[in-house]
């Protein structure tokens, strides 16, 4: 499908640095990356699509309503790369976006310079085992709320993970009425199907193949994360050890690492795209 996307770049033309392709997590949109791109847009082109079923990449085309496997997301991204004439990109994925990124690496490794993956387990149960509770929560989540306070009260009392509740609160949008109301920038059923198809994505296998293709990867975990649990992180750090794979655990943040540690994360991306470092 044709994805809506955001592009931020105020540098010279042509760009001297390989573009960054930001992939948001479940329930987000490309716009969530704007504060991070603001610190980079004078140096490197930043692309941030709304993935299928999210943001303005709705509705999903007729006949594809059941297609929410990571490979479906990746095929959309290949079409975006082709349409925007992006021969190579650095991938930045958060949570669900990591699955999309690794699926893209599996389909088009020759177009990927590097992967920065944020807070998702490589071979453990999705979301530290909260996948099905989260699917049930999304299924029952009201489409809109009359005010932000009511919405936040519901999210933080019902969501199985406070970090995800915070994330959903951040991406919610105010719609002018009458009456005014708060709503979420995603298709609820698309999210439920994405969660339930997540176990079909062999991200460990894709990661190994990505490394075999010579693509350097960095996996970041927020020390307070409830999505990528500490025991899983330590076990996978040992299991997937490779010269091109770097693991880092950042203190004072959780699943929202890119946004909770914005300055440090932006600097990491600046180093990643620096031609002198490649």
What does this structure look like?
- There is one protein chain.
- The protein has 278 residues and is α/β, with parallel strands linked by helices.
- It has a single domain (5-125, 200-277), classed as Alpha/Beta hydrolase fold, catalytic domain (Rossmann fold), CATH 3.40.50.
- The protein contains eleven helices and ten strands.
- A seven-stranded mixed β-sheet has the order 1-3-2-4-5-9-10, with helices on both faces. It has a three-stranded antiparallel β-sheet with strand order 6-8-7.
- Helix 3 links the parallel strand 4 and strand 5.
- The chain is globular.
- 43% of the residues are buried.
- The model has no long low-confidence stretch (mean pLDDT 93).
Which helices and strands, and how do they pair?
Blueprint: E1 5-8, E2 20-23, H1 34-37, E3 46-49, H2 70-83, E4 89-94, H3 96-107, E5 112-118, H4 131-140, E6 144-145, H5 148-158, H6 162-171, E7 173-175, E8 181-183, H7 188-197, H8 203-212, E9 217-222, H9 230-239, E10 245-250, H10 257-260, H11 262-273
Parallel strand pairs: 2-3, 2-4, 4-5, 5-9, 9-10
Antiparallel strand pairs: 1-3, 6-8, 7-8
Gross morphology is globular
Q: Helical content, roughly? A: 25-40%
Number of strands: 10
Number of discrete domains: 1
Q: What gap, in angstroms, lies between the N and C termini?
A: 33 Å
**Category by helix and strand content:** alpha/beta
In what order do the strands lie side by side in the largest sheet? 1-3-2-4-5-9-10
Which sequence of SSEs, written as H and E, runs from N to C?
A: EEHEHEHEHEHHEEHHEHEHH
Compute the number of helices: 11
């Amino acid at each position: 499908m044709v994805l809506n996307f955001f592009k931020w770049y105020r540098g010279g033309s042509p760009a001297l640095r390989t573009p960054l392709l930001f992939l948001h997590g479940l329930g987000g949109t490309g716009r969530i990356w704007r504060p991070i791109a603001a610190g980079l847009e004078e140096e490197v082109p930043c692309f941030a699509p709304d993935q299928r079923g999210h943001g303005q990449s709705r509705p999903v085309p007729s006949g594809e309503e059941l297609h929410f496997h990571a490979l479906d997301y990746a095929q959309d991204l290949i079409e975006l790369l082709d349409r925007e004439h992006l021969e190579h990109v650095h991938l930045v994925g958060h949570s669900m976006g990591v699955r999309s990124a690794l699926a893209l690496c599996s389909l088009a490794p020759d177009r990927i310079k590097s992967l920065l993956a944020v807070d998702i387990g490589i071979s453990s149960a999705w979301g530290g085992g909260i996948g099905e509770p989260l699917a049930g929560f999304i299924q029952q989540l009201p489409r809109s709320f009359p005010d932000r306070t009511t919405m936040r009260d519901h999210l933080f009392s019902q969501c199985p993970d406070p970090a995800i509740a915070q994330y959903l609160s951040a991406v919610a949008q105010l719609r002018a009425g009458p009456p005014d109301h708060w709503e979420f920038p995603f298709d609820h059923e698309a999210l439920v199907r994405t969660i339930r198809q997540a176990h079909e994505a062999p991200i460990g296998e894709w990661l190994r193949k990505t490394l075999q293709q010579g693509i350097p990867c960095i996996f970041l975990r927020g020390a307070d994360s409830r999505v990528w649990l500490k025991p899983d992180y330590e076990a996978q750090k040992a299991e997937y050890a490779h010269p091109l794979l770097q693991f880092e655990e950042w203190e004072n943040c959780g699943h929202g690492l890119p946004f909770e540690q914005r300055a440090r994360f932006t600097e990491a991306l600046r180093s990643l795209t620096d031609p002198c470092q490649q």
